[in-house]
Write a structure and sequence with these properties.
Blueprint (H helix, E strand, L loop, with lengths): L8 E5 L3 H12 L3 E5 L8 H4 L3 E2 L1 H4 L5 H24 L10 E5 L2 H16 L4 E4 L1 H7 L9 E5 L3 E2 L2 H15 L2 E3 L4 E7 L2 E7 L4 E3 L2 E4 L18 E11 L8 E4 L2 E5 L4 E5 L3 E2 L8 H14 L8 E11 L6 E4 L6 E5 L5 H18 L15
Parallel strand pairs: 1-2, 1-12, 2-8, 4-14, 12-20
Antiparallel strand pairs: 3-7, 4-6, 5-6, 9-10, 10-11, 13-16, 13-17, 13-18, 14-15, 15-16, 19-20
Length: 372
């Protein structure tokens, strides 16, 4: 928490969905907020994401991470509605669910484990016979042995979400500065005073929130190591008009996400520690093999777009959230890996409240920087 004798000045380093969500919450709470973005708002991992809101497909078991994901999902419908009211932008929220297919022996074993613990936890997964799965999605491969339906896994148009959060943050009063690469944290003795930009400018503030994705760990002047590294992901889109899928459909090798505009998104590779953004022949071949395994007819469709992005990953694949244990005006909001879109609204709320009030009502210790 920072002093409230006046409206606090807060710097948010990073203008993706996480940074803009934090900035929006802070500005609505009365803080004077500046967002420093190295390129353009939402143009990195946020723009590249497929937009799956998939807590049941992401978590490996019960625990604090699953609880965080489920709360993020619970808040998303109201958040999407609030953004539409604030900005006029429809972020494409859909609650159609996810279908996970078992096509191999290994797939079956993995789905059996997932179904067992999620059923025991009362999370509402539904086991489907091949016939039931094809009744829901006639376009899936006839090689489907059985499937799990995750009714609670939804989706959103990530690019529209990034645009809406940027607009909402600025309309709430946040000052978003683009082409402002932060080089290092700036200190006055043992007190964090702000940040220094790559061009040498010093920007002072009462508090700093690090929401710079995989670049957060590369900043100079950090009080401790921040092990956030890129996880390169490649994605392709094909044209399907009219759209032949309603659900997101996945195997361990690929997911297909239908879009209302007729694109079918196939993703995504997982390449840890790769800083270069590029669509490679090997990556594209892997994606298309996974996509045609799910639905052979996809192989005859035109590819309309390919792209890649750098997700911010951590050694344990959990986000880094909350205050620094020794620097009271430094806060972390990074390392979300595949869940930045899902957790953006909740992260904005939790980190915003930590900055403004010193407490957010959620135990962030499992996600704290101190675990490293």
């Amino acid at each position: 928490m920072i002093a409230r004798s006046r409206s606090p000045e807060v710097l948010v380093v990073g203008g993706g969905v996480i940074g803009c969500a934090v900035a929006r919450h802070l500005a609505l709470g009365g803080a004077r907020v500046r967002v420093l973005e190295r390129a353009e708002p939402g143009a990195e991992a946020s723009w590249a994401a497929a937009g799956m809101l998939a807590p049941l497909a992401e978590a490996d078991g019960p625990g604090p991470f699953l609880d965080l994901l489920l709360r993020g999902r619970e808040e998303f419908p109201a958040f999407a509605a609030a953004l539409r009211e604030e900005t006029g932008i429809d972020v494409g929220y859909s609650d159609a669910g996810t279908l996970s297919l078992a096509l191999t022996d290994a797939d079956e074993r993995a789905l059996e484990r997932r179904h067992a613990w999620q059923s025991a936890a009362g999370l509402g997964t539904e086991r489907l016979t091949p016939e039931e799965a094809r009744e829901l999605e006639p376009g899936i491969t006839p090689e489907t042995r059985w499937a799990l339906r995750f009714l609670g896994d939804h989706q959103v148009e990530s690019r529209e979400l990034a645009r809406a959060l940027y607009v909402a943050a600025t309309r709430a009063g946040a000052d978003v500065r683009t082409e402002a690469a932060v080089d290092r944290l700036a200190w006055s003795g043992d007190r964090l005073a702000g940040v220094e930009l790559a061009d040498g400018d010093l920007v002072e503030a009462d508090a700093v929130v690090l929401a710079a994705g995989c670049w957060a760990g590369r900043l100079g002047g950090l009080p401790r190591a921040l092990p956030v590294l890129p996880v390169h992901g490649q994605i392709a889109a094909v044209a399907v008009l009219p759209q032949r899928f309603r659900h997101c459909v996945e195997t361990p090798r690929c997911y297909l996400v239908p879009r209302a505009d007729g694109r079918l998104i196939a993703g995504a590779t997982v390449e840890r520690g790769v800083w270069r953004k590029a669509v490679t022949p090997a990556g594209l071949c892997s994606l298309l093999a996974g996509a045609t395994e799910i639905a052979p007819w996809v192989g005859d469709l035109p590819i309309v777009e390919t792209w890649s992005g750098l997700r911010p990953g951590t050694p344990d694949d959990l986000p880094v959230l909350g205050p620094d244990p020794e620097v009271p005006n430094l806060f972390y909001a990074t390392g979300h890996f595949r869940n930045g879109i899902l957790l953006a609204p909740l992260t904005g709320e939790l980190i915003g409240e930590m900055v403004l009030a010193g407490d957010c009502g959620v135990d962030l210790e499992p996600f704290g920087i101190g675990r490293f």
